[in-house]
Amino acid sequence: MKITVYGASSGQVKDIYVETARQLGTIMARRGHALVNGAGRMGLMAASAEACMKAGGQAIGVIPQFMIEQSWQHKGMSQLIVTRDMHERKERMAELSDACVALPGGVGTLEELLEIITWKQLGLYLKPIVVLNVDGCFSPLLEQLQLAVDERFMRPFHAQLWQVAETAEEAVSLCETTPEWDKNLQKFAAL
Q: Which terminus of the chain is less hemmed in, N or C, by CB atoms within 10 Å?
């Protein structure tokens, strides 16, 4: 599998986030999965990619040209794909992936996560999406999404568009298992 991993580019986050990103990359490599991310040279993006490669896995980075011009790219990725812009970057990362995992992050990570959930709701991305809720970091967002369901901004079954993991091991396992909801989406999309 190729698993897209969204996560912070900040290098100033708590150790528990960095350690979980490393665990995720290591577990992915040990299970034979390639990691796809935004090719950032710092933060959780770098930690997960470096751990994956250190454990013998492949890390594919997708980054827009303007970020290379700023020297924001990780220069040790197994493969680097350069895009025109952020929109093409996100589209390419989704195209490459068999599943997505969101590590904690800022607005960029949140935007990527919410966009891929929206794509799944629209039938444009029919693969597992896992929110890795490290140290409760995503709990407020998950509560907001539940509020959106409760207030009828979303239908109750839309809460099945994503799954929540508490550990890196659980996140990879959820990526490897297609939930019944996803199977039904895939059948519907094939019609």
A: C
